[in-house]
Write a structure and sequence with these properties.
Blueprint (H helix, E strand, L loop, with lengths): L6 E8 L3 E8 L4 E8 L2 H12 L3 E8 L6 H9 L4 E4 L4 H7 L3 H14 L12 H31 L3 H7 L4 H8 L10 H37 L1 H4 L6 H11 L9 H7 L5 E2 L8 E2 L6 H17 L1 H12 L4 H21 L12 H7 L4 H8 L3 H9 L5 H16 L1
Parallel strand pairs: 1-4, 4-5
Antiparallel strand pairs: 1-2, 2-3, 6-7
Helix pairs in contact: 1-2, 5-8, 5-10, 7-8, 8-10, 10-12, 11-14, 12-13, 12-14, 16-17
């Protein structure tokens, strides 16, 4: 049913079990508030209730990335303009108090007066798949790191016969050896330590398999989502996944390159007063995205001739390494923004015959990478033609030919 009557704006304060909604008119007068369940029928009832007051132009929603995600998807499906609203600032809360109805009204006012104008992430495409898989990947990776520390600490306090064997080994070697232990009666401290090490080592091995599977999935999805981003210098599957998650499935919601820089926390902030004119470091924004840009900057500083020349010139001007990296992150943000919104076509290299030849010879990626002194990911990208490297391809073909001949 089409909306009729005067224009109205809605606001929603989201919670786990219920959403509190408010409706205001075009001049900001509060018309009504109500509470709705966080179910599909509750979303339908919420929109229908708001439309009884007039023509619903937009709805401001708090927490579109958490408790409000379901409502935001429902509104997008019904072509209702949705505005992502941050929680009210502390000064306003001190002046007006805090309640669900007050927050819902504040969300409506923010959507009406333009204080909030950002569109929420749609969460309905490849990037959402990348986001949820990355949560599992980080959990497995971090838990595995904790297990490695626990194994190390057990060895430090272990009886001398165990410590003497395990302490000189690397983590991978310790895990491989400890996983094969067959402990005796656990009343003996030495055997109890063996049992504990075997348990931790087998868990470590299980997580290693899980990490590799999730890394492969993220590699495939990020390549499919934005091949141009993946072939940029210094951008691998992990960095690409962080940047794609930061902008979401609808990167066009970012109005400008400056908005993306602010999102990543690399836009200098004005800190001028009186005769003092200066900028300060931006400590806000998405810190994961900021970290991703920092990683790209470090990779380029170590391997990209153009970036090295830039750093040398800025050092001659008196800039410190930290200042140079901050400048680089701002330039990289401009490049990444263009790749996210207007990815350039990727020319694939004719290297599709390399992987079949390698697998037919029963050679693993790790074996090739070790022989050519590079990373397995570089070999995989070369085989799929997404990151051409003529020198590496020549060396790979020559080495593979010798292995097949042998």
């Amino acid at each position: 049913m089409a909306d009729i009557g005067p224009e109205v704006v809605g606001g929603v304060d989201t919670h786990k079990d219920t959403h509190v909604a408010a409706v205001i008119d075009a001049v900001g007068r509060l018309l009504a508030t109500a509470v709705f369940a966080t179910t599909r029928q509750g979303y339908i009832d919420l929109v229908a209730w708001m439309r009884t007051f007039g023509h619903l132009t937009r709805i401001g929603v708090e927490g579109t990335g958490s408790y409000g995600a379901g409502l935001a998807r429902h509104l997008a499906k019904n072509n209702i303009e949705t505005i992502e609203v941050n929680r009210p600032n502390r000064q306003m809360r001190r002046n007006r108090g805090k309640s669900d109805t007050v927050d819902a009204e504040a969300a409506a006012r923010a959507a009406l007066n333009g204080q909030a104008s950002a569109a929420p992430k749609t969460r309905d495409g490849l990037v959402e798949s990348i986001r949820v898989l990355r949560i599992a990947f980080r959990s497995a990776r971090d838990t595995r790191a904790v297990l490695g520390v626990q194994i190390r600490d057990l060895i430090v306090c272990a009886p001398d016969d165990l410590r003497g064997v395990l302490e000189p080994l690397s983590t991978a070697q310790r895990v491989e050896l400890a996983a094969r232990y067959r402990p005796g009666p656990i009343a003996n401290p030495t055997e109890a330590t063996r049992a504990a090490l075997r348990c931790l080592a087998r868990r470590y091995q299980s997580l290693t398999v899980e990490v590799e599977q999730l890394r492969t999935s993220l590699d495939t999805l990020t390549l499919e989502a934005n091949p141009a981003l993946r072939i940029a210098k210094g951008v691998g599957a992990d960095v690409a996944s962080i940047l794609l998650i930061a902008v979401g499935d609808n990167p066009q919601r970012l109005r400008s390159e400056a908005a993306f820089a602010a999102l990543c926390g690399v836009s200098p902030i004005e800190a001028s007063s009186g005769k003092t004119v200066r900028h300060r470091l931006n400590q806000g924004g998405n810190r994961q995205a900021n970290h991703a840009l920092w990683r790209i900057a470090l990779v380029r500083l170590s391997s990209d001739p153009a970036t090295k020349a830039y750093a040398k010139r800025r050092r001659a001007e008196g800039k410190s390494t930290k200042e140079i990296i901050r400048c680089l992150k701002r330039y990289i943000a401009r490049e990444i923004y263009r790749l996210l919104l207007n990815p350039t076509p990727v020319e694939t290299s004719n290297t599709t015959d390399l992987r079949p030849a390698r697998t037919a010879a029963h050679i693993s990626l790790e074996t090739v990478a070790n022989a050519l002194n590079t990373w397995p990911a570089r070999i995989s990208e070369l085989e799929r033609g997404i990151r051409p490297n003529p020198e590496l391809e020549h060396n790979y073909r020559a080495w593979l030919k010798t292995q097949i001949a042998a």
